[in-house]
Specification:
The chain is an alpha+beta fold. It has 19 helices and 16 strands. The protein has a five-stranded mixed beta sheet, with helices on both faces.
Length: 483
C-alpha cells in the first residue's frame, strides 16, 4: 500500500497528463464498469498523491464552478449547460463549514507545500472573508501597476534583445527565463543585473524553490548535510530582510507603492512570491509558448508578420486573441488544489451521475485539461489564433477564475503583451524547428498527441516547459524601432 502510494506520487510529479491517462487505462482493465464512456468518469478520477485522497477534475464547467468560490449550485459557461455542486446533507454548499473556511479551501490544501516558504501575511493562502477583504486592498494597490511599469518592461526587453546576435542559436526558454528575471526584479524591486542584490536574490529564490518542491519533504539540519527543504527555509529567512531593504529604497511615488493601500511589511512579504523562482518559471513558460506561436507556428506566413501587415487598430485585437489562445492551451501551471470542508456531491452537465467527495479530501483542478474540454471549445486541442476575436468565447483558466484568480494575472498578461509587441515591432525573425511531438501538443500545433509524448517531451511541474532545449536563431532587422 505504501509502495503503491509512493509510486502514484512520483508518477504524478513526473507528468500529470500521463498519470491521469494511465490511471484511466488501468481502471478500464481492472474495473471496466467504473470507467464508463460517460464524461463524469473520465473527467473526475481518484488517486492517492503524497498520502492524500485526491479527486482530479478536468471538466471546464466543474472547474469553473469550484473556482467561483461561492459553493452554490452554479451554471458552467459554454454550450453544455450546468455543473452542480451539492451538499451530501442536501444543504446549500454555501452554508458555513465546521471550521468557517470556504467550502473549497486554499489554505489547508497548500499548507505543506507553501506555508514554510511563503509565510503570512500571504494572501495566496487566505480563505473566506479575510481573503476577500485583502484582495480588494491589493486590487486597489495594483490598479495602475501594469500600465505604470509598461515603459520599464519595454526598455528591459529592448536592452535584452540588444544582446541577440545573428548566427549562434539560443535556447529560447532559458533566454526568456533570463529576461523574466530582469523584468520581475526590475518592476517590483527596481533592480537590474548590475546590482549585487539582483544575483543574490535570484540564487536565493532558486534555492527556495528546490526546497519547496523537493520529493524529500522534511527539514533536516546536520553538521555536514542539509536537506533541500531545510536549505529552502533558510533561503526564505535570508530573503525577507533583503526584500524589505529593496522596498524601503523605493520612493513612495514609485509604481509599486503609489496607491499606499499596503504597508511595507506586507508588501515585502508578497514580493517574496512576486519575485519567486516559480513566478519566473511561469512567466518564462508563457513567454516561450507565445513567442513560438508568433514566430514558428507552421504555415506560409508567421503570425508576427500577419500582425505587422494589419493597421494598428487590428493589431492589438489580433495579438490579444493569440495571447488568450496561448494561455488556454499552454497554461504555465497545470492545476490548482482545494481542500473540501464538507461532504459534497459533484455532477457534470448532461449526466445524472453524482461523484461523492468527503470532507478533508483534496480536489485537484487540472486546468490544462479543462482548457481543452471539447464540451466548451470546438477543435479544443488545436491552436486557433483568431479564436478569441469573438468576444463571447469563454476564456481558459491560465490564472484561475473567480474571487481567487491570480493576483498577478494582469501584470503577467501585460508583460507578455509588451515583450511580444517589442519583438514584433523590431521586425526580427526566428528560425528553428519544434520537432518533439509533446511540445507540439502542448502548443496545439498537433492534435491527438498521446500522453506518453507529453510525459517524454514536457516538464509539467512546477511549470510547463519543453524538456529539451528549443534552439532558435535570430534574424535582426531593427532592434531599436521607436514607438
Amino acid at each position: 500500500m505504501v509502495l503503491s502510494t509512493l509510486n502514484q506520487s512520483f508518477a504524478f510529479h513526473a507528468s500529470p497528463e500521463s498519470f491521469i491517462s494511465t490511471r484511466l487505462q488501468n481502471l478500464s482493465v481492472t474495473d471496466p464498469d467504473l470507467v464508463s464512456s460517460t464524461a463524469s468518469r473520465q473527467k473526475i478520477i481518484q488517486a492517492s498523491i503524497l498520502n492524500r485522497k485526491v479527486h482530479i477534475i478536468s471538466s471546464y464547467h466543474l472547474c469553473k464552478s469550484i473556482l467561483q468560490g461561492n459553493g452554490v449550485e452554479s451554471e458552467g459557461s459554454g454550450p453544455s449547460g450546468a455543473a452542480s455542486i451539492s451538499s451530501a446533507e442536501a444543504k446549500s454548499p454555501s452554508d458555513s463549514t465546521r471550521n468557517g473556511l470556504d467550502t473549497f479551501a486554499v489554505g489547508p490544501a497548500y499548507h505543506q507545500l507553501m506555508a514554510d516558504f511563503f509565510p503570512p501575511p500571504n494572501m495566496l493562502l487566505e480563505d473566506d472573508g479575510l481573503h476577500a477583504t485583502n484582495k480588494q486592498r491589493w486590487k486597489q494597490q495594483l490598479s495602475t501597476f501594469p500600465t505604470d511599469v509598461t515603459p520599464l518592461i519595454r526598455n528591459i526587453t529592448r536592452e535584452h534583445m540588444s544582446t541577440f546576435r545573428e548566427g549562434p542559436s539560443i535556447d529560447l526558454y532559458e533566454n526568456l527565463k533570463d529576461l523574466s528575471w530582469k523584468v520581475l526584479l526590475g518592476i517590483f524591486l527596481n533592480l537590474d543585473t548590475k546590482d549585487e542584490a539582483f544575483s543574490t536574490i535570484e540564487k536565493a529564490q532558486e534555492t527556495l524553490l528546490r526546497g519547496q518542491f523537493s520529493l524529500f519533504p522534511v527539514a533536516v539540519n546536520m553538521p555536514f548535510w542539509q536537506s533541500p527543504r531545510s536549505k529552502g527555509i533558510k533561503a526564505r529567512h535570508d530573503l525577507l530582510p533583503m526584500l524589505r531593504e529593496q522596498v524601503d529604497k523605493q520612493e513612495p511615488s514609485c509604481p509599486l507603492l503609489r496607491q499606499q493601500k499596503i504597508g511595507k511589511d506586507e508588501m515585502s512579504s508578497h514580493c517574496l512570491l512576486f519575485t519567486s523562482s516559480i513566478a519566473n518559471k511561469a512567466l518564462a513558460s508563457l513567454l516561450t509558448a507565445t513567442i513560438l506561436n508568433l514566430f514558428l507556428l507552421p504555415g506560409p506566413t508567421p503570425l508576427a508578420a500577419i500582425i505587422r501587415s494589419h493597421p494598428p487598430e487590428v493589431r492589438g485585437l489580433l495579438l490579444e486573441s493569440i495571447l488568450l489562445e496561448t494561455e488556454r492551451l499552454s497554461p504555465p501551471v497545470v492545476g490548482v488544489m482545494r481542500r473540501v470542508q464538507k461532504d459534497l456531491e459533484l455532477s457534470l452537465p448532461d449526466t445524472e451521475e453524482r461523484h461523492a467527495v468527503q470532507a478533508g479530501c483534496d480536489v485537484w483542478l487540472y486546468l490544462a485539461g479543462a482548457n481543452r474540454d471539447s464540451a466548451v471549445f470546438s477543435d479544443a486541442e488545436k491552436f486557433v489564433f483568431d479564436r478569441f476575436m469573438a468576444s463571447e468565447m469563454p476564456r481558459g483558466f491560465a490564472f484561475g477564475f473567480g474571487n481567487k484568480i491570480c493576483l498577478g494575472s494582469g501584470i503577467v498578461h501585460q508583460i507578455v503583451s509588451v515583450v511580444a509587441t517589442v519583438m514584433i515591432d523590431a521586425d526580427i525573425t526566428l528560425n528553428g524547428n519544434v520537432s518533439d511531438l509533446g511540445v507540439k501538443g502542448w502548443l496545439g500545433w498537433e492534435t491527438g498527441v498521446p500522453p506518453s509524448a507529453f510525459a517524454s517531451d514536457l516538464k509539467q511541474l512546477p511549470c510547463q516547459r519543453p524538456r529539451k532545449p528549443v534552439l532558435v536563431t535570430v534574424g535582426i532587422a531593427s532592434m531599436h524601432r521607436q514607438d
